[in-house]
Write a structure and sequence with these properties.
This protein starts with 7 loop residues before the first helix and ends in a 9-residue tail after the last strand. It has a single domain, classed as 3-Layer(aba) Sandwich (Rossmann fold), CATH 3.40.50. 35% of the residues lie in helices and 19% in strands. By secondary structure, the chain is an alpha/beta fold. The chain is globular, with a radius of gyration of 16 Å. Helix 4 links the parallel strand 2 and strand 3.
Length: 219
């Protein structure tokens, strides 16, 4: 494996989880199903908090895995045009069988993002929470490259989550990153219009990035 594509080890890990646990929350390495629902609600708030949101926005679920966020949207009866993207052919093949009315992309956007159209919103749920064998520096670089690439593909906003540093202990295979490392990169390279969510009870936080200021208030 080329060092520049060392991030493929993360993909291999998730595929092994799918092989072992099937189409379940454990199949994408989330230990608790109730926490998955919490994460989905937080990701959806990227759109709900935006006063500039379109009537029926388009959304790309980057690193969609088994498409569970689409299941959540259908249960919530949300009027959102859902598309999914994953680098894993195994995951995308499964999603295409499950959801024949949605569009799915199997792409490595760091190699070529030209096939990916513009979306109103992009979410990345769990894409940066596990670093596996990558060092912190390698994972940070990987994350920033993804964010830079995808911010050019969204018209309104983007959301992603990472593990918090405000914990009693850290797992070596998880990606714990301080607020200031992320915020410093965002305002220097992407946008000053961002929100950090550390209020939903999990050992992680979610960042919303917006193209334009929004005055929506979390209640």
């Amino acid at each position: 494996m080329e060092n520049k594509r060392k991030y493929l080890s993360i993909v291999e890990h998730y595929e092994k989880c799918f092989d072992k646990y099937g189409d379940t929350h454990c199949g994408v390495d989330w230990p608790k199903e109730e926490d998955v629902v919490t994460r989905h609600k937080v990701m959806l708030d990227l759109i709900n908090l935006d006063r500039n949101r379109p009537e029926a926005p388009s959304l790309l679920d980057f690193g969609c895995g088994l498409g569970h966020f689409n299941d959540f949207l259908l249960k919530q009866k949300e009027k959102i045009q859902y598309s999914g993207l994953d680098i894993s052919q195994k995951f995308i093949g499964h999603c295409k069988e499950k959801y024949n009315s949605n569009t799915f992309y199997c792409e490595d956007v760091l190699s070529d993002s030209s096939h990916i159209p513009m979306f109103d919103y992009i979410i990345m749920n769990g894409v940066f929470t596990e670093k596996r064998e990558l060092s912190n520096d390698e994972m940070t670089s990987y994350m920033f490259r993804i964010l830079s690439t995808l911010f050019n593909k969204c018209a309104h906003g983007m959301a992603f989550n990472v593990m918090s540093k405000l914990v009693e202990w850290e797992r070596e295979d998880l990606f714990h990153i301080p607020f200031n490392v992320i915020t410093d990169y965002l305002y220097k390279n992407l946008t000053r219009n961002f929100v950090i969510r550390h209020d939903y009870g999990l050992y992680e936080y979610t960042v919303y990035l917006y193209k334009n200021p929004t005055i929506a208030i979390i209640v």
